[in-house]
Amino acid sequence: MKRMLSGIKPTGRLTLGNYIGAIRNFVAYQEDYDMYVFIANLHAITVPIERAELKQNTKDLIALYLACGLDPKKATIFLQSDLHEHAELGWILTCNSYVGELQRMTQYKDKTAKGETGITAGLFTYPSLMAADILLYDADYVPVGVDQKQHVELTRDLAERFNHRYGDTFTVPEPLVAKVGAKVYSLQDPRKKMSKSEDNPKGTIDLLDEPSVARKKIMSAVTDSIGIIQYDPEQQPGISNLLTILSSLNNETIEDIVARYAGKGYGEFKKEVGECVYQFLTQLQSKYKEIIASGMVEKVITEGNDKARQIAHKKIMKVKKKVGFQLF
Fold it and tell me: The organism sits in which domain of life (predicted)?
């Protein structure tokens, strides 16, 4: 089986956008790939975060991975900070990265363009650590959203550069972008990505939101005055976003949904989307509560760490030898 790897930062609460754009696909991919999924908590401290919040977010993320359908018998789930190999390879790849490359990366570029102060060196160099996360495991594919594809492109460049300098060492990964639901947008500003750091809470649906609250957010979602239910992200970003959400949750094509709603109004359409989200969250949260109560989280991470460490240790020792760190 080809190997696939991805991870999510435990910063903020997971959103419906995280599920549709990433986790839902992880669950599907675990059937056909040797799947490695990790909690990217080293990346979480590139911006300030309280200790208690980071711990709770990390536990919730693991439990939600499992509640969403990731099976530890099919997918290796592990905690990034428990494997020192990530930080070691991250430093080595930082020393093989160019300042210009890192300056072009989206997060740093956007924050500096806005004139933000207090930007950490970690935020500048984290793409090299992200490359290490991928290259440690010789991942063939990395499932990403549209806005994350840039990181895989840098990873490919670093892998090829290292291989050229030191000999064949890393598999050069391919990005895998889902055709539907790759990006879910804010319910209040449908030209912006639905984000864990959304300023307006009405724009984001958290996976741990009360289902009734989430339904209300759908009913108050921004639409338009055109009055036709069709998929047109340019002219009707709000309606198109709701179509993506409904299609992703009920496994019905957008074309079929549009056909069903020919001649019907936005109110009826929103009601179906809201009910679909309500039912999804109700079922998901029931599973989440069972997993938290069972103590399963610690067991899954312990076993996942052990399996991931075997691969990561072998790779970092090979890298150290090639760089010249091993004396004997």
Answer: Bacteria
193 is known as an active-site residue:
yes
In what helix (H) or strand (E) does residue 143 lie, and over which residues does it extend? strand 141-143
264 is catalytic: no
Total Cβ atoms within 10 A of residue 157: 16
Instruction: Spot the catalytic one: 59, 74, 111, 192.
Output: 111
Whole-number pLDDT of residue 177: 79
For residue 207 the two structure tokens come to: 């996976």
The CATH number of domain 3-182+296-323, selected from 3.40.50.620, 2.40.50.140, 3.40.720.10, 3.40.50.300: 3.40.50.620
Indicate the pTM of the whole model: 0.90
* Six token digits for residue 283: 């079922």
Contact 18, 206 (CB under 8 A): no
Give the residue range(s) of CATH 1.10.240.10 domains in the chain: 211-289
| Residue 178 near residue 21, CB atoms below 8 Å | yes
Annotated binding site for ATP: 9-11, 17-18, 145-147, 184, 193-197
List the beta bridge partners of residue 75.
35
pLDDT digits (tens, 9 = 90+) for 63-99: 999 999 999 999 999 999 999 999 999 999 999 999 9
